[in-house]
Design brief:
Elements lengths: L1 H5 L2 H52 L17 E5 L4 E4 L3 E5 L53 E2 L4 E9 L2 E15 L2 E10 L1 H53 L14 H50 L6 H25 L7 E4 H10 L7 E6 L3 E4 L1 H18 L3 E9 L2 E8 L21 H6 L6 H11 L3 E6 L5 E8 L2
Parallel strand pairs: 9-11
Antiparallel strand pairs: 1-2, 1-7, 3-5, 4-6, 5-6, 6-7, 8-10, 11-12, 12-14, 13-14
Amino acid sequence: MRRRLFGSVRARATLGATLVVAVALLAAGASVLLALRSNLTDQASSEAESSARKVAVSIATGTAPAALELPDGDDTPVQVVDGDGRLLAAGEDLERISGTGSSAVKPVTPPVDDDGGDDGGGDDDGSDRHGGNGKGKGKGGGGDDDSYAYGEIADDAEGGKGSATVDGETRDYRFAALEVKNTRQGDLTVYAGASLSAEQSAVGTALTVMLIGFPVLLGVVGAVTWLVTRRALRPVEGIRSEMSAITASQDLARRVPEPATHDEVARLARTTNETLAALETSVERQRRFVADASHELRSPIASLRTQLEVGAAHPELLDVDGAVADTVRLQELAAGLLLLARLDAGERPGEARVDLATLAGEELSQRPAGRVAVRTHLEPVEVAGSRSQLARVVGNLLDNAQRHARSRVDIAVRAEGPWAVVEVGDDGAGVPEAERERIFERFVRLDDARARDDGGAGLGLAIARDVAVRHGGALTVRSSPAGGALFELRLPVA
């Protein structure tokens, strides 16, 4: 059952389409998730850097770490760390942090250089001479002096990923580290984080949608492909069933249904019908050939049998010459039928080089002087092929011309470019234009009575054309200058 299912074109097409769409969806989904995560991560990095830069600006403009106004809430945890890794300031609700320069959450009091400006004392009223009061939203170790020297903020911030617990809630963050140089406390680094909750939520939602939607989409693709292929292959099943019926009935006159479309299936149906038509013609031709051959063989066999029976009963009445003539006729007919059978079987001609002028001369020399004169114009020209078959062609053309000529037969051999040309003409009645193709059919004779008397069976011209075609040439007929028929044989020059 499994082999039968996957042996179906429809099943393989559906499976293939579903697999292709699945791979495409996986690739597209992975690309979307990666792009979404990258964009949201970049957005979080920008937010973290913006928060870090705001704090760095405050430090660079003279605000002490203990007096910084740090962002409140759990979206932006902040740390200010000095060059020795000590935490100078941090958000109020920060309980735990990782992924930054310090894991501390409680600020320490920085040491103050006695030679470095203000000694930390304030005015009599306890206020900072820069207006700071030492109190802010951030928690930090505090001296009496909240003023710092101006610092230089780095151009670029470094990024990193970590986590933090703020007000009892732990989240993943994207941290930005921005350095502020040359402050009173030396080089400081501001760490600010932006929550990745939006990124994680968006990626999770997209992944959930894909996990739910992709199987549904694949199911739809598989179902649609199954239905479409079933409809597309329905004419193929019609063709198959009709061919099966033709095979069972052996009725080659039947034809497969042709769809009204113009696709590959319609072309397959048309080609199948053309093949059936050619096969029907071939079978019919074969039947006619067998019937005609049987008919042609019946007459000389019956005549020969009659003569032999008469001779057996009355030896003095035996017509030896007639018996010999009938035997020769049978021999020639059998040889012609055998050659046609070999040609129909696809026998390839040989590759021997044959001089057509010499071949024509030999055929003429084998014929005794007849009632008509033969004029020749033979130029040496060589072709490649079977010498015996080409001799049969030239002999058949000469026999046909001598049989129908009144007083003269002309034969010429010459070269015309890449072609070797043999022309055999006579001054007889010629061939009507409407019959010029029909005479090359097997067992066709335009004058049956004369052909039978002269021993013709209607195979000579059919054999001559088949041999010419097998040798890559052609045999045609037209009117000769003398008024009779002119047969032209064209073969490729060797």
